[in-house]
Structure formats: C-alpha cells, structure tokens
Specification:
Elements: E1 8-11, H1 21-36, E2 40-45, H2 55-67, E3 77-78, H3 83-95, E4 99-102, H4 106-118, E5 141-144, E6 151-155, E7 159-163, E8 172-174, H5 182-192, E9 197-201, H6 205-218, E10 224-228, H7 248-253, H8 258-267, H9 280-286, H10 301-314, H11 317-328, H12 338-351, H13 358-369, H14 378-383, H15 386-400, H16 407-421, H17 425-437, H18 445-452, H19 454-464
Parallel strand pairs: 1-2, 2-3, 9-10
Antiparallel strand pairs: 4-5, 5-8, 6-7
The structure holds glutamic acid.
C-alpha cells in the first residue's frame, strides 16, 4: 500500500513591501520542487504583524508572483485570519504542560534577560514552574517551556545543525493582547497546510531550531527544512538597494522577461552541472534540493542579461511586440501609430536577436519610430555633405521607380546603384544610413528599407535632400 504524503511546499512572505528578488527566488525553488514531484505549492501571507502589513504590499506580492509566473495552488492563506486556531494550539500546549502563562512585567523580563546573559544561559521565566492560580489579575503572555535538551535539525542544504538548550529562551507564543507570535503561527500553519518541505532563506535557520522544539512538543511531524544562503551583492557583501536588492517589478521595468529572470534566479544558488540556460520544462525536470549551494551566490547583472538574451531570442515575436509597445506607450516623441507598430512587428524576428532586454529593444526600434524630420548631429551630419546629398537625390529617383521592394531585391538595387555611380558601397551606405536612421542604431540597410516601405524611405530621403 502506498502511503507517501504528497509533496507540499509554500511561500510565506510578510506583506511589508514588494516581492523582493530574494523572496522571488525562494518562491521559485519552492514552486519548482512541488511541480517536479507532482505536489502543490501554496501561498501564505504572514500578515500577523498588523502594524507593518499593508494591503498594497499584499497586492504587490501577488502581482509580482503572477508576473514571474509563480502560480500557487488554491487561495492564498492569511495568517492573521487563523489567529483563533493559533490560540487553540497554544491552549493545547498549556494543557500538555509545554507552555505556561507568564505574568512577568517588562522590567522583570529585562532583569531576567540580563541575569541569563551574565550566566551564559537562556531566559527562563519563574512562572514556568509556578501554579498559574497564583497569577495576578493582570495581562499575561504565554511562553513556550523550552525543553532543557539540545536541538538537532537535518537541513537539506546545511546538513545537520545543532543548538545547545541554553540557546533557546522560553519563547513568547502569545502576546498579552492574545496575538500569536511568528514561530508559533508558522508551525501551526505549516502543519495545517500539510507542508512537507520548507524552503526559505537561511536567516530563518535558528527559527528552524525553535520551530523544531514546538513541533516536538505538539507531537507533530517536522517538515524537511532547506535553508538557502541569502543572495549577496556583486561585491560579495550583503545585497544593497544600489546593487539589486529590489522588487521583481524593478527587474520587469529594467526590461527582463519573466522567463529570463526565472532562469537567472534558478541558477543563483542552485546548479546542475554546467548548464546555465533552462526552459521552464527543463527547470521542472531538473530541480532538486541536492543542487542547492551552501555558499551565498552573488548577483551578476552581466550574466542576468546574457541569460535573458537567450530567452529574448526564443520569445514569440508577437508577444515581444506587445510587451515592447506597452513600454513605448509611456514615452514621448515617438510615432506610435498602427504603421509604426507594423514596422516593429515586421522587424522583431531580426531585432530580438540583438537585444538582451526589452529596454535594449527600445533602443533598437528607435530608428523606426522617431519623429521626422531628424536633427542630424556629429558624424551623421558630416556623412550628408553636398556630394552625398546629390547622390541620395539620384538614389531617391532610382528607388522611386524600383519595383521589387523585398529585402534581397533592395540589396541588389543598392549594389547596382553604387556600380552605376562608380563608387564603393560605403559611399552609398553611409549617407543613406544617416538619412534613414538619423544616426540611430539599425540593422542592415536593405532590411531597413524593406521594413519601412517605399513611401517612408522616400519621405526620409526627401527630408535631407
Ligand atoms: N514570513 C517570513 C519572511 O517573510 C518567512 C517565514 C518562513 O518562510 O517560514 O521572512
């Protein structure tokens, strides 16, 4: 009889800001692990801290996850909404003698903390062994009766991690206003959601130890933990805003594709031989906990761009056109009509080969969409001297009566024209490029002429002649 529990992972962000790049990576690993094993990936919003949690942050996190293609199973769970259940479990812990009411005042706690520190041990409340009927008629907290034995955690990344009993205080489980604390709520929620694997940042490793104690006290199965090293900045130090400690929407705005960012984040702290580039199907097929690295990965923007470039080339051209157009629509000084859009769409197969991000693609399409007439500067203005203008005048006539407006035919026509003129191709190409693009980056001239069409080409030549 098969009696294996289905794999269930979760992502449990606190809604105090955007979906941070590090959180996005944790979510990706958790989602991939669940998909790989045909399990479920759940989302829990850890909104117990009412002062710091905002609806805007919840929206930003959900939007970020949707954009990155990290779809979760079922409805997001609100931790705050489960407070009743948390209190019920705390009552059960009290009934088992594993938790107790503590009436210490803040000053008393401070004194206990100092003594514990001086004696090199953990905080122990005097109320752990007192009869609660002696408690005064004042607010109390509920504390965990931290067991006096070492704690061991088998971590999927860090291996076996051990703590001495003296490292864990009698932790507060319920505050005096009845609000559950983080470690208690996480244990109850992970248990109730059937979570089998907890993948999260190693800033939570010690919490893993505390949570292990609580699971034990409740007699519940402990999930598999995998605490992954946090992402470091390019300088090897803690990730700073300037170095990329941003929300995923900032990466979207920088022009990364969701699949590009997914692929980059996958490789940031996880490896699979030397393989760098992964399609989604390949990610799901390859992801395992064994490939998670023990040392922190550094953010590397060059690599992010090159991974994204791979996905730009693979992306559907119509989709890229839509994504690009949405970005361009907020920019002034561009020709954003149907004709402009048709030019962009027609050149996308070519242009996507040369752009690592959508932002680079914006530069690549600028030559098509800039408003006429162009202001010519520097080298571009120089290329349009008197001789060149006279030549462009003759070229304009030739093109006006040229029949076949396909790229190869235009290439032939330009070559034939250079021969008639008795000059090298550069003498034609340079001024032609200046007139047609105004000096903006653009592909091959015959390609450019073919995309823009005869009317536009003749109009741009006319502008300079
Ligand atoms: N809410 C915690 C955080 O955002 C994560 C808790 C967990 O994954 O157990 O850091």
């Amino acid at each position: 009889m098969q009696n294996k529990r289905p794999i269930i992972t979760r992502f449990a962000p606190s809604p105090t800001g955007y979906l941070h790049i590090g959180g996005a990576r944790t979510a990706l690993f958790s989602a991939l692990f669940a998909r790989r094993h045909g399990g479920q990936f759940k989302l829990r919003i850890e909104d117990t801290d009412r002062a710091r949690s905002t609806d805007d942050a919840v929206t930003a996190i959900l939007d970020g996850m949707r954009w990155l293609g990290l779809d979760w199973d079922g409805e997001p769970v609100s931790q705050f909404a489960r407070a009743e259940r948390h209190r019920e479990v705390v009552d059960a812990l009290i009934a088992r003698g594993a938790a107790f009411r503590c009436w210490c005042t803040p000053d008393e706690v401070e004194a206990l903390r100092q003594t514990a520190f001086d004696e090199g041990r953990a905080l122990r409340s005097p109320w752990r062994d007192r009869d609660p009927s002696e408690g005064p008629d004042t607010p109390f907290v509920v504390r965990f009766k931290a067991p006096d034995r070492d704690v061991a955690l088998q971590d999927g990344v860090q291996g076996e991690v051990r703590w001495a009993a003296k490292e864990f205080d009698d932790l507060v489980l319920l505050r005096s206003d009845g609000a559950p604390t983080y470690n208690l709520a996480v244990v109850v929620d992970d248990h109730d959601m059937g979570v089998t694997h907890v993948i999260r940042g190693d800033d939570h490793l010690v919490n893993g130890g505390r949570q292990t104690q609580i699971y034990d006290a409740l007699g519940w199965n402990i999930p598999h933990f995998a605490h992954i090293p946090l992402i470091h900045g390019p300088d090897g130090k803690k990730l700073s805003k300037r170095h990329g400690a941003l929300g995923v929407e900032a990466y979207r705005d920088m022009g990364y594709l969701p699949e590009g960012l997914r692929n980059y984040l996958l490789r940031l702290g996880w490896s699979h031989g030397d393989k760098e580039l992964f399609t989604d199907a390949e990610m799901v097929a390859a992801f395992d906990l064994a490939g998670l690295n023990k040392s922190p990965a550094r953010l590397d923007f060059d690599k992010m761009a090159s991974v994204n470039a791979f996905h730009m080339k693979r992306a559907d051209s119509a989709r890229l056109t839509d994504l690009l157009w949405a970005r361009l629509e907020t920019k002034p000084g561009l020709r954003l009509d149907e004709t402009g859009r048709a030019w962009v769409r027609a050149s996308m197969d070519t242009l996507k080969e040369r752009a690592a991000t959508l932002a680079e693609l914006e530069d690549q399409v600028y030559f098509m969409l800039r408003l006429r007439p162009f202001t010519m500067e520097g080298k571009t203005a120089k290329a349009l001297d008197e001789d060149a203008l006279a030549r462009l005048g003759r070229l304009s006539k030739a093109l006006a009566s040229h029949n076949d407006w396909s790229e190869p035919a235009l290439g032939d026509a330009l070559k034939a024209f250079a021969e008639t003129e008795g000059v090298g191709f550069g003498k034609i190409g340079q001024p032609l490029r200046a007139a047609i693009t105004g000096g903006a980056p653009a592909p091959d001239m015959s390609f450019v002429l073919a995309v823009l069409g005869r009317d536009e080409v003749l109009a741009r030549l006319n502008d300079v002649i």
